Amino acid sequence: MKFKFALLSIFAIALLHTGCKKDGPKAVETPVIKEPTPPVVPADVILDRPINLNVSKGAFGSKIVISWAQVPLAKKYQVFKFNDTEQQYKLLQETADSTVTDIVTTPLVKVFYKVKIFNSATEYSPFSDINFGYASGKSYSKLLSFGSGGTGPGQFQYPMHVEVDSLSNIYVSDDNNYNVQKFDIAGNYLQLFYSGPSPRGIAFLKNGNTVVTTASGAAYVTILDKDRKVVTKWGSYGTGDTQFQNIEEITVDNDQNIYVVDGQNNNVKKYDKNGNFLLKFTAAIQTDKQIDKAYPFGITYFKNKIFVTSPRNSIIRIYDTLGNFIKSWDAGTVCYAIKGKGDNLFVATPAYVLKTDENGDIREKIGEGDFLTTTVTGVAITNNNEVIATDVYARKIFIFKHL
């Protein structure tokens, strides 16, 4: 019996030393890496390694920001990035700063980094801890929102249209409160800019005057000077050249001509800066699947062309400044206000702001998942490329910053 027990013990020990074990799932770990070849010359000075390595995770669109605490005696840092193809860390950048930016084109993929001090071949530090980050692929993120339901300053009942001036002040047209309120870029209430029935689109002329339109009242288009005194006004209800049935958005071209969308009449009317009628053209179409009649809504002057949208279909139609139809493209969703800035168009759709090029190629869906309802109708772009959008039934204005 003792002999058998001894044999079993020896056999168990032998198995233990052979490394035999039951297969199981492998743990997910930081990538196994090949360390960079150390300097041939031994260090004369070993410095403290960098600490507090922070790597952004989706906060800066297509960029990843790597930062760490400054280390005394450090003159230069080396930032290493893990290379998936070579399965090792490669030098990304040398810098005297404690922050670097890495451009990453693939969103939501973890990228690993580490940092060391490298003053010279004989004066350096060990590596920091490893940390990872990733890009979101977006170029905009929500900055803030403001507003609530009501009739007081900073409150809205139906904020359908929005515009900004050259100082990035925000003007919100509230159909049901019969006013246009002015805010700064932080959403602080500045003043009651205009009071009148059903205000709609707003535009600013180079001479400092403001064009304000309404959907009813004694005059449908009013031009105000810098002191908000009436310069000229025109328009009544009807189908004539200076008549309207339901004004929506407006835009101004480089020659300061004013284009007014007349929704119910399905046309765009063009006037000079003094209100003289120039021409009009049909603005929208009724598609085969569309039950309601054609109805235009948004308009913008962009790259010497006029772009017009409709909330009753997804077609964006393009005209020259004489009203001649050029072409159209499908945005894939119903469209409200539209604005052009730089090389891109920004289109208010029910649940996000669609960013495209002039041919309709989608660049981004700004604010997707951020809005509280599916009634995003107004959009404006500041000189700093912030996107301002109205969420009508939430009674809020959203501001998105460019990353």
From TrEMBL:
Q: Which SUPFAM superfamilies match?
A: NHL repeat (SSF101898)
Q: Which InterPro entries match?
A: 6-blade_b-propeller_TolB-like, Ig-like_fold, NHL_repeat, TRIM-NHL_E3_ligases
Xref: PROSITE patterns: NHL
Residue ranges of the NHL repeats are: 143-186, 231-274
Question: Which portions of this protein are annotated as coiled-coil regions?
Answer: none
Q: Which UniProt keywords apply?
A: Repeat
Protein name, per record: NHL repeat-containing protein
* Species annotation: Mucilaginibacter pankratovii
